[in-house]
């Protein structure tokens, strides 16, 4: 994964780098991000857009870092029994569980297959299938997300029943990708039609893979990644990764034993996302400490290293874009 080719290294101060760090405690949620924001069972979820424009349908969504990375970083926070409605994306959607216990399910009606993920587990959900997720833990939970492409595939494709249920609770999605809330006195502007509901013929293009189809190739368990990392960082998602795929980015996994003080660099921006423990990130002109839930954007061509700064178990996810197109990844 590291690109060791030497290019002119940028000079960046600790203050400038801090502007590229989104602290967990500074995350700004949006509770009106999607069409199911009023639908019972989904109306308590919070959406976070950390890097890139994301796929929010609401003008209320705050974007922390707008620098293009070739992918988007986001998060979803939900109390127990809250779910995210069935939807699909045209590009990759990867989640790792930062906290809580989560059930991911998929298919036209959400009953084709499912898997339960614990803290640290990661799932690379195949594109082109309807998927949803819910917090089945006992406390507020958070999942971190990586979406393929700078524009994240142009938005969300909702299962027909989600659009129909939302209309019953005052929310309409325009064909322009924007939400209109009748509870706020809003209506579709003149000339803007509602987002069309997929026809039965169009729905035939959405596969219904079973759990046996999805889990082996698309789910990695936390302690399996820890074992794989060993003395060398593990490639979790990538052409030769634990979950072989080319979604437009690679996801690596680093532990205390596989971390090194030796600096490396990439010719594109990369992202560091601690899962466990505190991490000291160093570059030629400064250093910063990251905690679980923090997200750090490292500039292209900047030599840097990341090592745990305290004793105890430590792990970190590392994301970097590749030259692969951020297109469909499901291979049925």
What is the gist of this entry?
The chain has 332 residues and is mainly beta. It has helices at 14-18, 160-168, 200-203, 211-218, 222-229, and strands at 21-22, 46-51, 63-65, 71-78, 83-88, 93-99, 102-106, 113-117, 122-125, 131-135, 141-148, 157-158, 171-173, 179-181, 219-220, 234-238, 243-244, 249-255, 270-276, 279-283, 286-290, 295-298, 305-308, 315-321. It is built from five helices and 24 strands.
Describe this entry's structure for a reader.
There is one protein chain. It is built from 5 helices and 24 strands. 10% of the residues lie in helices and 35% in strands. It has 2 domains: 27-220, Jelly Rolls (Sandwich), CATH 2.60.120; 222-321, Jelly Rolls (Sandwich), CATH 2.60.120.10. The chain is mainly beta and 332 residues long. The chain is globular.
Q: Which tags fit this structure?
A:
single chain, mainly beta, Jelly Rolls, 2 domains, 5 helices, 10% helix, 35% strand
Beta content: 25-35%
C-alpha Rg, in Å? 20 Å
CATH class annotation of the largest domain: Mainly Beta
With strands numbered from the N-terminus, the spatial order across the biggest sheet is: 1-22-19-24-18-16-17
Ranges where pLDDT stays below 50 over 5 or more residues in a row are none
From the coordinates shown, what is the CATH architecture of the largest domain? Sandwich
- Distance from N terminus to C terminus (CA atoms, Å) equals 28 Å
Query: What is the ordering of alpha helices and beta strands?
Result: HEEEEEEEEEEEEHEEHHEHEEEEEEEEE
CATH fold title of the largest domain: Jelly Rolls
CATH superfamily of the largest domain: Jelly Rolls
Instruction: Please state the overall shape, judged from the principal axes of the Cα atoms.
Output: globular
How many H/I helical runs?
Answer: 5
Largest sheet, strands/sense/barrel:
7 strands, mixed
Please bin the fraction of helical residues: 10-25%
**Count of domain modules:** 2
Domain Cupin type-2: 80-143
Organism: Wenxinia marina DSM 24838
Protein name: Cupin domain protein
